[in-house]
Every structure is written in C-alpha cells, then in structure tokens.
Amino acid sequence: MATTDSPVAASPIGRDTPRVDGPKKVTGLAQYTSDFHFPGMLYAVPVEATIANGKLLKLDTAAAEKMSGVRAVFHGANIGKIFRSTQAPGFDRVCEERRPPFEDDVIRYYGQYIALAVADTFEAAKAAADAVRATYTKEKPNVEARLEAGPDRDVVLTTYGPVPREQSKRGDPEGAFAGAPIKLDETYVTPAETHNPLELHATTALWDRDMLTVYDSTQGVVNARSVLAG
Amino acid sequence: MHIFEFIRPSDQAAAIVTAAQSKTAQQGADVRFMGGGTTLIDLMKLNVETPDRVLDINRLPLDKIEASPDGGLKIGATVRNSDLANHPRVQKEYSVLSQAILNGASAQIRNMATVGGNLLQRTRCVYFRDTAMPCNKREPGSGCPAITGHNRTLAILGASEHCIATNPSDMCVAMAALEATIHVQGQKGPRAIPFSDLHLLPGNTPQRETVLEPGDLITHVTLPPPVVGSKQLYLKLRDRASYEFALASAAVVLTLAAGRITHARIALGGVGTKPWRSHEAEAELIGKAAAETIFRQAAETAMRGAKPQTENRFKIELAKRCLTHALRTAVAS
C-alpha cells in the first residue's frame, strides 16, 4: 500500500473541468430513458388535471378511445387496485407521492394524473391524452400569490403556513464561536443556480417473463428499484 | 397534437388552391401554410393550432433577397430571419430591421423562422397558449381571463374588452417603421397591403388577426428605397438580456438637417395588440430641433391612449422612456 506516496490529484474546485458526459450530451448521443425503444412496446401518456384543487366529476374518454392506434385509456374506474408501497427505515422505498394515481377523485394539485392513454406510438398516446375531457368541481387553491416577509424574522411564511427559519440545530454553535481561539466572521454568497435537467420525465419498463427491467429518469436508482419491488 | 396531413407543394398555384379550401383565414385555420414552423409547430404541440392540413411552402421559390426596381428591397416570404438580418444591404440601409431581428428569439430560432411566418407570429399570452383556459382569440366567446389575471406582459395600446394580447414580433416593429409593403398572392390574383393595414385590432373579433383571406399566400415583402442619411435604431427592453419578448421596444428612423428633424418614423413593440406605428409621435418631431424635451413630448404623445391592466401600468412609463432613449441615442449616433 503505497497510497501515501501517490501525488495528490489537483482539486477540480475553482477550475474548469470537462464533464465526462459533455460530448455525448451536446452531440445527442447520450441515451435518455425515453430513447429506449423495444419491439412491440406501447406508449403511455398521462392526462393531467387542469385545476389545482377540487374534485373530478366526470371523464369523457370516448373520443380518445376511438382514435387510431389507441389501445386503452385507464383511469380510476378501470385500472383496478394499485399497490401502495411502504417506506422502509432509512432512505429507502421513499416515494414522494405515496397515494397511488387514480386512487380517488380528489384533485390536490395542478397537473395531477387523472387518466392514462396507451397507444402504439408516443404521438398517438399524446393525441389521445389531449382528447380526454375532464369536468371538475373547482375549489380555491391553497396558494399565496404574494409571499412577503412576515414581521417575525425567525419565521418564514410558506404556502404550507408559517415555519421556523431555523429548522435544525445541534450542539452549541454560539458558545463554540465565542470560545474559539481564532475567529473568521465572513459572509459568503452564492448566486442563484438553477437546476435544468435535460432529460424528460419517462419510464421504460420491459417485462421478460418474471423479470422486469426498468429505465427511469431518477436521481435515486436503488430507491426506485426498492419502491417498485417492495 | 392533432393528426394532420403534411403537404409539400412545389407549385405556388396549387398551394393557394388547397389553402383556399380553408374555412377561415390563416391564423387558427384548418389549412395552414408553414414557413419555419417556429410558431405554428409549437402551437400545434399545445393543441392551440389544430390544422387538418399543413402546407410546407419551403419548396416554393420565395427565398431570395433582391433589389426592387424602385431602389428598394424585395424580400421573399421564406427568407430566414438570420439571412435577412445579416444581409449587407439590410445591415447598411435598413439597419433597424437587422437590429430588431437580432434582438428576437435565439440564433437557432432565427435560423429557422421565415419573414412570412414572422409577420403572422402569434401572441405569447399565457391564456391563449393554454387550452384548459378560456380565450376569445382561440375560442371566440369563451372570455378573456387575462383582463383580471396575469397580464403583466400584455397590451396597453389597441386592446378591447375581448382581448388584450400583445403582438410579440420584433421584426414587425421595424417593418412598421420602414413602411414595408406585404405582397400577397390570392385566389383573385396578387395584391399589395401596406404594412400598417396587415394587422387588425382585436375589437370584438380577436380571432381575426390580419386582413388575409383563405388562400392568401404572402409571397414577399418590399421595403421602399432607403431613407438617405437616416439614423436608425431598435431598442428593446425586457426581463432578461436575451431570448425574451419585449416589455417595450421602439424602432426609430430619423433624418436631421442642421439639427432639425426632417423625417421621423416611429413604431413600438411589446405594448400594442398589433405592431404599433405612432404617426402622432412622428408629427411631434418633424420640423423640430432635436432636443430632450421634444423626445419626451413625442413619447408622451405616443402613449396618450394607453390603457393599463392590473399588472402592467409600469409599461406606460417604460415605453415612454424606451422611446425617449431610442430617439436620444439615434440622434447622437
């Protein structure tokens, strides 16, 4: 073990560092989930709620079902029971939306899945999803258009109501700082950096008898597997 | 996206005959001409435009920029925005047009977008683009939620109680200031439409955006001979420095003699339901000595009829400052 003699690699921090996936992404060679196609594969496109709060009264799928290349339009009344996964200890089987799609007729947010069009091609599935007509009873969405600072600077106002600015604290930072032999008191600011993933949301699932292979747009590959299998 | 038939006619007459079968005129019609497709295909993916037939006119011989007999310029309908903006004569003699185009969209979009298509560019009003919402322009009679809703970017000039959608084109603002002429080939033969007569105010028919009839194909645009010695400027103010639509913009073409303004053409973008030529502001300038007070007076006059909505009152002052600054900068250039 001669690791202590190895030269330390120069730190990438503060230097331009080429991304290993850069050339593939800019030339279009990078394969995303939706780039995988298999013989006989069907394509599904969700129908999304166009209100932010209320109830789904009626779904008219007749026109969509008659469209060319369309195999089925699934929704709450015909999809059957969908398994609800349970969270495991630690960061495992974490599912942001524990309620399975189509479980009830309550609309909780704009864009919530209310039906699913399945067709021979992506284009036909999208056209069928767009042709599904939904009727709702609308309620006022629980959103604040103007989020202003409140009078108490230790409290942050959010759409979920006021939450304390400090949400986690360990030890005695004030005491440790006061008693430190060397003190550095600086303010560091980072610019707003927006996260712009190139990949479109998609899942490609391939059954081979009892084996299921899934290609997924996810940051948690192991977690996704656990949710599906657990 | 609605299933449609894609037709690539190589013959202009055949294209016009097919398009004339459309029940309504160009915008929102069941038969649509397609240039670069940068607006049309986008809106088809959103189901805002649902044509049954799309006629791709890119194989028609309409892609030339040529001198016209009167010393002006003849620009084919399928000339790409990039080619027009970078044409030596446009850069030199009609620079306001070059500037306006290069201030719009992105390099990729400008490489695709055509002159004919840009003339018919549709609004970016969020309600128009969302089929889950009512919109009098998309579904006449369904209502205009923009008037009480998100209207920060919408029009303060030329609006009606039925529609306050802004015309988003930069190119059109320059075309208005350059007094372009739109040449159309229709079922009844060719005709020429002065630029200011092409677009309609929304009134109670906001679904009808231009005077074009079914079958009318824009074949080319002509610009009059360049205004000798003119100072030209396009100034665009927007939320970010590139790839963004104007909150207010101004195209100015001026000539001066001994410090006096002898010729003035002014058009505004980002504020009107159509590209907004202001003859009134021009009248304030012509014959006057070029000075800050006169520029501001012209800007006040241009905005005299402005009617703000709940979120866009700021545009009145912004547009005044935009025009004042454009005039000051053009004169100093």
Keywords:
heterodimer; A: 230 residues; alpha+beta; Aldehyde Oxidoreductase, domain 3; 10 strands; 16% helix; extended; B: 333 residues; Enolase-like, domain 1; 5-stranded antiparallel β-sheet
Question: How does this structure look, described?
Answer:
- The complex is a heterodimer of chains A (230) and B (333).
- With 230 residues, chain A is of the alpha+beta class.
- Chain A has a domain at 34-141: Aldehyde Oxidoreductase, domain 3 (Alpha-Beta Complex).
- Helix content of chain A is 16%, strand content 23%.
- Chain A is built from 5 helices and 10 strands; from the N terminus they run H-E-E-H-E-E-E-H-E-E-E-H-E-E-H.
- Chain A has helices at 22-27, 62-66, 122-131, 173-178, 221-229; strands spanning 43-48, 54-60, 70-75, 106-107, 113-119, 133-138, 155-158, 161-164, 203-208, 211-216.
- In chain A, the strands form 4 sheets. A 3-stranded antiparallel beta sheet of chain A has the order 1-5-3.
- Chain A is extended.
- Chain A starts with 21 loop residues before the first helix and ends with a helix.
- The mean pLDDT of chain A is 88.
- The longest helix of chain B has 19 residues, at 314-332.
- By secondary structure, chain B is of the alpha+beta class.
- In chain B, strand 4 and strand 5 form a beta hairpin.
- The mean pLDDT of chain B is 96.
- Chain B is globular.
- Chain B has a domain at 231-332: 2-Layer Sandwich (Enolase-like, domain 1).
- In chain B, the strands form 3 sheets. A 5-stranded antiparallel beta sheet of chain B has the order 4-5-8-6-7. Chain B has a 4-stranded antiparallel beta sheet with strand order 9-10-11-12, with helices on both faces.
- At the A-B interface, helix 3 of A face loops of B.
Mind sketching the topology for me?
The complex is a heterodimer of chains A (230) and B (333).
Chain A (H helix, E strand, L loop, with lengths): L21 H6 L15 E6 L5 E7 L1 H5 L3 E6 L30 E2 L5 E7 L2 H10 L1 E6 L16 E4 L2 E4 L8 H6 L24 E6 L2 E6 L4 H9 L1
Antiparallel strand pairs in A: 1-5, 2-4, 2-6, 3-5, 7-8, 9-10
Chain B lengths: L4 E3 L4 H8 L11 E4 L5 H6 L7 E4 L8 E3 L5 E4 L4 H5 L2 H6 L1 H8 L4 H6 L2 H5 L51 H7 L3 E6 L2 E6 H4 L18 E7 L7 E7 L10 E10 L2 E10 L6 E2 L1 H7 L6 H11 L11 H19 L1
Parallel strand pairs in B: 1-3, 2-3
Antiparallel strand pairs in B: 4-5, 5-8, 6-7, 6-8, 9-10, 10-11, 11-12
